[in-house]
Fold these 2 entries.
Entry 1:
Amino acid sequence: MKKLTNLRFLVVSLVLVCNSLLFAQKNYELVSPVREMKNKLRSDELKSKFGKIKPSQTLSTTNQSDYDVKSYEIAIEVFPTTETIKGSVKTTFAIVNATTTITYDFANSLTVDSVKVGNLTTAFTHLNDLLNIPIGANDTTTTVFYHGAPSASGFQGFDFSTHGPNNMPLITTLSEPFGARSWWPCKDHPIDKALVKMAITCPDNLTGVSNGLLVSQTNNGNGTKTFFYEHGYLITTYLVELNVSDYSHFTYYYHYTATDSMPLEFYAYPEKLTQAMEDFNATDDVLTAISQRFGEYRFLNEHYGMVMFPWGGAMEHQTLTSYGNNLVLGNHVYDWINAHEAGHQWFGDYVSPKSWDHIWLNEGFATYIEAIWAEYNGGKTAYLNDIMAEMFNSFYNVTVIADSLDPFGNTNAIYNKGGIVLHMLRGVMGDTNFFAALNNYLNQYAYGNAETENLMDFCSAEYGTSLAWFFNQWIYETGVLSYQHAWDWNPATQTLKIALKQNGNKFYKMPVQFKFSGSGIDTVLTFMNDNYLLNTFQIFTTTLPFTPTTMVVDPENWILANKQPTSFPAGIEEPNKNPVTKTFELHSNFPNPFNPTTTIPFELKNNSKVTLKIYNQLGQEIAKVFEGTLAPNFYNFVWDGVNQNGEPVSSGTYFYKLNVGGEVQTKSMTLLK
């Protein structure tokens, strides 16, 4: 791969180091610098994308479905000294259902000076962040003139700040999900895409940047310049952006064939130009990696690029991602964010969600594309290890479908679980069918909108039968999957029996792989776990041409689940079965290392008096996790990393001891802070 430095593999390398311990365990949860880094940036992006928006502001009025926006022509002048703006927006629309009123979402913090319908000035009302304009049956345009100090909710909306040693003005926007209305009147809903032109007027020592192509710029002779942008592709309101500062501009190229290329346009703070030129030179490879899997970049007639802005994380504005200045270090450590945001150009921008309930179609895919980027660089091993870094089981007892009034309320669901669901779907369908289905989905809804059911239909078509069972259990429902497994070998008949049982309150139908090794031979068998019975073993029987000595369940982690060995079930075992647990078995805690909590699993075969305690390296008792009598079953107890007094303990090695009827088993674990 061209232009790569070793530091670009830092994330993958960290995962590989941590993961070398994981494959020796039965559970696949990961606490590592990678996880902590990703969670921090997810949190920053959450803050950026969802501020203190009143619920009433997120609801479109009834009559907004009566018209379809065709285009917006936005003209905004920014005044950095007073932190105010003056603007006009001409909207062209088509009436879908008879209506006498056009209603735009528009914040009351801005003052509407006048409104035209066609060429005639008209009356209007501006209340509760809604702008109502009376129209006639044949009207097709409105123009709104306004001014004021735009407000931001949390990090969302229109922001005035400064950067650099000289405190240069910096004006930026971030409108996802409901912030476009804070700086321009629009139908602020993802379903209604339109063409957009943008004219930005600013002090002449600054540069205005927006989506699409810079078609011209004019020196106004009064200390200001106007930058004219035109975007030739349909775009939804939350992806429209405005940026103004003393940007340093540079251009690279995306080489989509041996002889053709597209410009990659970048806008950096001058004080970070050197670091930006290094970090952003990965973008050619990023687009190549994504295009190989999901088809060519979809805005090829214009460009792609990034503009630095002051907020945490990044935002996938169409054709020009806003990229947090804290991510520009000049060492490629955040190339995975570059891949994440570029991936949105396919999933989120090219095909946008019909409503915010389905935001996982944006963020789950972009998170999954982080693993595609790892796969492009380091092959299947790097891909699987990136997936492992996202497997946080304790966060996954949630539905992936979001709350439309708070679409970023659970980032672990829409980002991490959404990405893992796609990984599992790939495992179920196989590479050929999986990528064919996703490309068909993208092509069908090109420059439009889709929802989860649309994706399911295309996946089912390639799979050959309905995948509703998969989408229902992993997307729409809650629950945690936990397997217990055992196996038995009869050398006389060379018969292999596998026993698999699910515990919990919901059954998951899934194909499960079992890897058997022995005599220098490996084989992977796949069986469908579909008996739909909880706490009941499903038995799979086959023959092997060699004597197996080990079994690994789901060796490539295609399933988001806890996986624990147990004894082969009584009544169907053969004389030469594997050794079984006699009275109890203490299993390895997960995750390990951990911070701040870990789960300690154990299995009881009889009614027993049980004590589970935590000790430090000096043998001193730190905490009592459980004491009492338990029935035969498989148990998971959680230690939250605090002592008997409820105080957090320090990093280090600790021991957990399970005393069952006077017999003791002990294992160690590591707390990392």
Entry 2:
Amino acid sequence: MNLNALREKINIKLFRSKETALDILNYATILVSLSAIASMVIFHGFPTTEESTFWHFAIIKSSFGFYIFSYIVRFIYDFSPLDFVKKSWLEGVLLALMALDLTLTFLIGRSPVESLGHLVGLPNLESFYSLFIQVFFLIIIFVELGKVQAKISNLGLTPPTLLIISFVLLILFGTGLLMLPEMTVGGKSMPIMDALFTSISASCVTGLVVVDTGTYFSLKGQVIIMGLIQLGGINIITFATLFTILSGQNLGIKHQSLIQENFSAESLISGKGLLRQIFLFSVVIELIGTLFIFLLWNPELSFAGVQQKWFYSLFHSISAFNNAGFSLYSESLAAEYINHSYLLHLVIAGLIILGGLGFPVLRDLFSASAIRNRVKYPWKGYRLHTKVTLGSFLVLTLLGFIVFLTVEWNKSMDGLQFAEKSVTAFFQSVTTRTAGFNTVDISSLSTPVLIIFIFLMFIGAAPGSTGGGIKTSAFALIGLAAYSTIRGKKNLELFHYNINYELLNKAYSILLFAFSLIFFGTFALSIIEPEMNVMDLVFEQVSAVSTVGLSTGITSDLSTGGRAIIMISMFVGRIGTLSIAFALSRRVKTVDYKYPNAHLHVA
């Protein structure tokens, strides 16, 4: 009997029990995963004892044992075991490494990692092994989550609705984690409203804070905030989707539509291809940024050790690239010894710019395929979206730079050299576009500068980026429409392309929704916070809606009602006003009709 015939005979024997066995396995996987996650939350969120540590690692290792058993069962039940191994190669490699570690630990009574630490004279390697085990387990969880994401097409939900649900779940999970006692320096549970505000601000990559991130939160709490920034900046569903692809799962149409919706991809195919490069760009840019920040910290700054210096560097790199604006210093980059570190400011500004340009633009500028294509076909050039994004960025950055430089020349920048003033003005112009870092005291700036900041914050970053605002392309389309109307042109033309009026209608819709949110939010804030300056309230509301994070210093002084308005504004601003509208509205059954033309006086 040949191998194929034997396998066919086995498949026939297993066929009747396959569906039942795999269903039981799926339910068991959910229970095991939830138990292990709960164990990790309790272990890291509450003070530990020897007994709690023992049970925690017992649960984690038992979970690994179950995952190994689950993998073997699914391998046996699969009609094509070799194809199963190829599709689930990532999961197989991870579980094989863990199985090797568990086996050797059982045989020699100690983990190979711990043994290696003692052999090379690094007994502290045991603590790193603890971290290694838990990170390893989280990767397995993401792989399992990726399998669930592969079935997203079965859900009767639109892509905007799924985006909203993913952010709500991330925010709620982050709130729960931040309320754990071990997340704060004082070891006390954070008030729920403060935790919710911080979780929304981090998940929506805004940067408005009601407590000082650097002094209120412990290292664990700061890691949670950093994780929320990363997951919120790229979207948690996108992380799960990556593991879906790596594990060989196929994406449904609705799942690909979700990627297209979140990153403004031109098509389903381009959206799927963009996903892989998103992670490559993010990891490479953030790691390079971490290295430069580490090297450029002012020598006068004191760190508890080189580990803390690396962590501070990584935190600010992730925060800058994701346009979050969270800083571990109370005064952000205006803190002592940092406010005059101009090379550091330029690195942070570079990270902000790269994050704000958007992943489709980064792909067009830096991907190997795009570069090869331009070398092979020099006449092709950059895509229209890239040209519009770069052109808008240059115009808006120059506008902010000139206004800040001229108005604040002898005010907030008094006593600085020309080069220092230029870097300071450039940084403020860049960060205002949704980043939230500042190297000067925002509350001390003059009214004209605050007004231009509000304008720049309102426009924001590019589509498909980690930033907010109405987006540069929407602003460019509206400006182009006004110019074409004044010139008496019937068509929208840009770089020898004709722009579809459906895009213009979408831009106007975004403008209207954003302006309405800002207007009604400011109106409500002026009622709830009557003692506060109206300019400060407008600035705060625009900063929240555009997910910028800059503030004149009133955030922590807001009442519960005022904070609620800011939280709603941050959430809607991150999701996108148009996505919210699409998710809540019903689609018409047909648009295949047209009423008679009419005339309406508008001027």
